[in-house]
Amino acid sequence: MSVLSDLRVVAVHTGFRRLLTVRLVSQTGDGMFQAGLATLFFFAPERMATASDVAAAFAVLLLPFTVVGPWAGVLLDRWRRRQVLLVGNAVRVVLTGVLAVLMVTVGVGPAVYVVALTTLSVNRFLLAALSAGLPRVVPREQLIIANTISPNLGAVAAVVGAGLGFVGSVVAPDGPAHDAVVLTAAALVFGVASALALRLGPDQLGPTHLVRGGQLWREVRSIGRGLVDGARHLIERRTPAYALGVIVVHRFAYGVMTLVGILMARNLLSDPSDAAAGLATFGVVAGATAVGFAVGVLVTPVATQWISPQGWIVVTLGAGMAGQLVLATTPALWSVCVAAGVLGMAAQAGKIAVDTIVQRDTDDDFRGRAFATYDVLYNAAFVGAAALGAAALPDTGYSRPTFAALAVLYAATGLAVRSGFARRLTPGTAAA
Known about the structure:
Layout (H helix, E strand, L loop, with lengths): L2 H9 L2 H28 L9 H26 L4 H25 L4 H24 L9 H29 L6 H19 L18 H7 L1 H15 L1 H30 L6 H29 L5 H21 L3 H28 L3 H29 L7 H22 L11
Helix pairs in contact: 1-6, 2-5, 2-6, 2-7, 3-5, 3-9, 3-14, 4-5, 4-7, 5-14, 6-7, 6-11, 6-13, 10-11, 10-13, 10-14, 10-15, 11-13, 12-13, 12-15
């Protein structure tokens, strides 16, 4: 079945079409915003990119939300998720506008890091709301199709947004307003996403039980207990917990390769003193990753007709191992692009099965906490990858021992899924 055929299956549901539109517009803005940050932190002419500098930037932007994310997840199971999409994108309009003003007036400093961190935190919160609301707009039996279409088209939209952002960075005039141009455009896109959320009903995305008035404060005070209950629920259901463990491996390896791509593009495949050339080279690598995303979207619907979710996860882990081995052969641009494409495909294709398992086997009252936890693990794995990169990668980004270790990690995880987790990942097992 083709992607267009899958889209026709779920697009008959008005709620799905509207939720997908919000996701696509919102994640296009995400890509533009993240491209602006990439040029600001990693490819600005006045900044030198070392392994430790890149790792520190990722840690500053992601580690704090790893700590506060679960608290947001409890509220996500108590607030209208439609309102989260509406207000969250509106807040991002303001924050991104403030960031653009800071770039023009004071440049990179502590305030820029704080505002960027807050904006990215809201982004992760919105993505959790989008995923938690998806089962409310499609029938249960169509979740695998919806997960093939929605999150992955969202990823493609983010890549398109990043491409627009990189183009904007290249054509924008040099000077204090250079980085503000892309950020201002991203703010406008966030505003459109906020307006589009109004097309959904206030209660259409859940949750089932709402908290009103003074009850909210009592709920906030009981957040710690709620987090414990949410974790216990995931463990009792088994399959969501196992699936999240698999995605951590994918995200960790992908995070290492993101650092590799930045460092190699800036310091090995281009003249380290020419930041513009480094940005252009990284754009090529990012394009190869985008192709991998698209391939994952195209092949997954066909594969899942013949292969179980756990079997597909094993295949994607095997592809990730192959990508590492290709990169270990030579530091040439072609091998970096091939590895980026293969790893992009593996990450996106594997995520479809994981998303479906978490959505299907988690009760609606806990689903927000499940996906907020999902995002926290995403960030924690990326921060762990940054720490490994700072310790193991040279400033050129190329390290055969690191690539070999990641290949072993992929292989070991695939064997564990096949021999130990596969039985538990079979649909319906958790509910038995």
